[in-house]
Amino acid sequence: MNPWLMLALAIGTEVIATSSLKLAAGFTKPLPSLLVVLGYIASFWLLSQVLLRLDLGVVYAIWCGVGIAVVATVGVLLFGESLSPLRIAGLLAIMIGTILLSLSGKGH
């Protein structure tokens, strides 16, 4: 499978797991708690497969940067969290850095 597609899937499963943490209410709700555990297992397995073919620094930066931005967006859209101009600027800085790192990296 294409490592970039696998990275996108790793990010997606990580976002589901992280977002489910809020819904799990300290692991007192079974379904969201299960999504947390399974999501992180899937995410780290996919990430480990991606790292067999792409550079660690680039992959990890993209995984973290995109994950942060998407989780922040989920927080605003699904959980009603605030979105200040400073928060927007921070997210844009993360995304710009992520793009620059991805453009500079090479696969093996």
TrEMBL record:
CC per GO annotation: plasma membrane
Subcellular location: Cell membrane
Keyword terms of this UniProt record: Cell membrane, Membrane, Transmembrane, Transmembrane helix, Transport
UniProt-listed Gene3D superfamilies: 1.10.3730.20
InterPro entries in the cross-refs: EmrE-like, Small_drug/metabolite_transptr, Small_multidrug_res
Topological type in the membrane: Multi-pass membrane protein
Sequence intervals crossing the membrane: 33-52, 59-80, 86-103
Molecular function GO terms recorded: transmembrane transporter activity
GO BP terms: xenobiotic detoxification by transmembrane export across the plasma membrane
Stated family: Belongs to the drug/metabolite transporter (DMT) superfamily. Small multidrug resistance (SMR) (TC 2.A.7.1) family.
Protein name, entry field: Multidrug efflux SMR transporter
Lineage of origin: Bacteria, Pseudomonadati, Pseudomonadota, Betaproteobacteria, Neisseriales
